[in-house]
Amino acid sequence: MEKLRSLITIVLISFGIGYSATPPCINPISTVDWSFFADTLEFKGVCSCATETGIKVGVKLQLAEPIAFIEVPDKAWDFLCFGSTRSKYSIQNKDGSNQGKYGSKTNMHYIKYPVFGVLNITFDNLCTTHDTEFDILPTGLSEINPLLWDDELSVMTQPWKLLFANPLAQTLCLADCITSSIMPASNVNFGETVRNNLFWCAGCWGTIMPDTTTTNGKESIVESAVKAVRLIDQMHETLQLKLYKEVPTLSWAAVFSNWGQPTDVACVPKFFPIIVKSQYWLNLAYPVAWDAVPIGDFPPKWAWFKKYPTKEENIFAVWRIRTCCLGFQFP
Length: 331
Known about the structure:
- This protein is an alpha+beta fold.
- The strands form four sheets. Strands 2, 3, 6, 7, 11, 12 and 13 form a seven-stranded antiparallel beta sheet that branches. The chain has a two-stranded antiparallel ribbon with strand order 1-4. Strands 5-8 form a two-stranded antiparallel ribbon.
- The chain has ten helices and 13 strands.
- The protein has helices at residues 2-16, 28-31, 35-40, 115-118, 146-149, 151-157, 167-182, 192-197, 220-237, 251-257; strands at residues 17-19, 42-50, 55-72, 84-86, 104-105, 109-112, 135-141, 214-215, 242-243, 270-271, 280-286, 292-294, 314-330.
- The protein has one domain (2-330).
């Protein structure tokens, strides 16, 4: 599987893009909000984990790590993260527009990019991800994944999400909007009961469901942020992303889905079938680098006056909050 993924990545890079001199995502020093890492460090009590050779005893540590970039380009097969322009050999029948009378339809790409590993920054004792290579995930490309591009197919395969397409469900999103807008970066656990249980909402940005690239198209940066959240949600639903943050308020979802309790992830992360919004923050990395914000934050605080007049292309760095057991191995 890894060899197949690498081959697909090479083919995409070879035939889909052409590189420019200064790729924005290859320069994470200036595109990632490093202050957010310091803001999230917090000790959460004692812990113990069973290992193959004994037991690990220590303290629970909460921290944030940048794990990926999500880009929303104007043109299909245009990989902004690598400073690219689409080559003449690319398939062009899925171009979209972020502005339009009938809404927005663009592409989006999930690029696995463990910044700590790429920069060769090791945090063995801090439990951060030890990956050292980026990867273009085929399932995270809307040009390939029909569930991201085709609205009708998405509804057919996820009919239960129609339950939230009603005025009452949308009105409840106001609580998510308010909670997301007043939470400080120094307290990433603020209001997580409200935010996580309203899992179909994206706060002040709109609604997460359905998980496609179609949105209202009123403000390109906000619409791009909604698409990024939808992509994360679908990757959770298809078991491509795991739960790393302890969230006791979602025990009902664990029972319903039979995936185990979301409070026991400090030792071993678990798959979880819906997005846990308190686990993820986004920071705008292109066209203007900005602070990390919670999902659904009030747009005037972070999205206004951040785009070029003639472009609607955006890239977000994805931060993941995690809880881990920092300690010593016995024996």
